[in-house]
Structure formats: structure tokens, C-alpha cells
Specification:
The protein has two domains: 4-94, Beta Barrel (Elongation Factor Tu (Ef-tu), domain 3), CATH 2.40.30; 100-160, PRC-barrel domain (SH3 type barrels). The model has no long low-confidence stretch (mean pLDDT 86). By secondary structure, it is mainly beta. It has helices at residues 73-76, 88-93; strands at 7-17, 22-27, 38-43, 46-59, 62-67, 83-87, 106-109, 113-122, 129-134, 137-142, 148-152, 157-160. It is built from two helices and twelve strands. A hairpin with a 2-residue loop joins strand 9 and strand 10.
């Protein structure tokens, strides 16, 4: 069984491409290569793998994929607007991580200690923010490289050196 904590958000399926079972897959900044042979989608709370028959690049962030055993636009339409996840180790091997990769990580401040768990990434404005849950409250932390002092992929922890008082706002 696939465990959600072993996966990270790749992006989202868009709309069917043509009539032969191909669909557009938009990436949130990851580059996929031929070693990427599947993505997983959350279907009723369970991660279900969808294997690629083939994949080609459409533009810098969108791929056209043919899903095995899906032969028509109607069949792949089922995936439209669904989030697509890849195994976390594929993302770690990527040259570039997106901020979404850190969802589920524990946020730690080098001065005050554990802040909470990153539950979301707010990129609705020019300043991307980590949404961190601590004791039922939301804390917003700027997603800026200059604040990050360490990343432990195995422990799923990200350490920040935040300006004094930012966490208490």
C-alpha cells in the first residue's frame, strides 16, 4: 500500500489531450525524466498509482502522458483536476525542489525550537508562505531560502533562522 508520507505533490492533471487516452499533466516545478514511470492520485483517501505508457514534454512545466489501460478521452477525464504525487525520493533526486515538497515537514526555528507542521503552501501572492499548524493555530512563515538553515529529508524537518518575534505574530 502506498503511504502518503512517502510522496510529494508533483502537480495536477489538466484536461485530456486528443482522443486516444492522453492527458496533460502540469508540474509544480519538477522535471520528469524517463525513470518516472507513474504518478499516484488520492482516490477516496487512498493513493492509487497510474502508470505511464509514454510521456512527452509539452512546455517547460506541462507533459502529455498516456496512462496505461486508458484508451479514450472519456476514460482519462476521470483524472482531470486531480493532484498527482511522485515518490519523495524522486523529488529529492531532482535538481530543483518546489515549496510544496515541504508539506508535512516539521518546521523548527533555530532559536525557539519546534514551530509545528507545514500543512500548506500559500503562493497566492508574490511572497510565498509556509502555512504551519501549531496547537490548532496557523502560523505563516516566509518561504525564502535565506531563512532556511537546514533540511533533513529523512526526518522530514526543515530548520529556519527566523527574525525574532516572527513566530509569535
Amino acid at each position: 500500500m502506498l503511504k502518503k508520507e512517502d510522496f510529494t505533490l508533483l502537480g495536477k492533471f489538466l484536461k485530456p489531450h486528443g482522443t486516444k487516452g492522453e492527458i496533460s499533466l502540469q508540474s509544480d516545478g519538477f522535471t520528469l525524466d524517463e525513470s518516472c514511470d507513474f504518478v499516484a492520485c488520492d482516490i477516496d483517501g487512498i493513493l492509487v498509482p497510474f502508470f505511464f505508457e509514454n510521456m512527452r514534454t509539452k512546455n517547460h512545466d506541462t507533459f502529455i502522458v498516456k496512462i496505461e489501460r486508458m484508451e479514450s478521452a472519456e476514460e482519462v477525464r476521470y483524472l482531470t483536476n486531480r493532484n498527482a504525487y511522485i515518490p519523495r525520493e524522486w523529488a529529492e533526486d531532482s535538481d530543483e525542489l518546489t515549496w510544496n515538497y515541504f508539506q508535512g515537514f516539521t518546521a523548527i526555528d533555530s532559536t525557539s525550537g519546534v514551530i509545528g507542521t507545514i500543512t500548506d503552501v500559500d503562493d497566492s501572492t508574490i511572497n510565498t508562505l509556509f502555512v504551519v499548524e501549531k496547537n490548532g493555530d496557523e502560523i505563516l512563515i516566509p518561504a525564502q531560502e535565506e531563512f532556511i538553515t537546514g533540511i533533513d529529508h529523512d526526518k522530514r524537518e526543515i530548520t529556519f533562522d527566523l527574525p525574532e518575534g516572527l513566530v509569535s505574530l
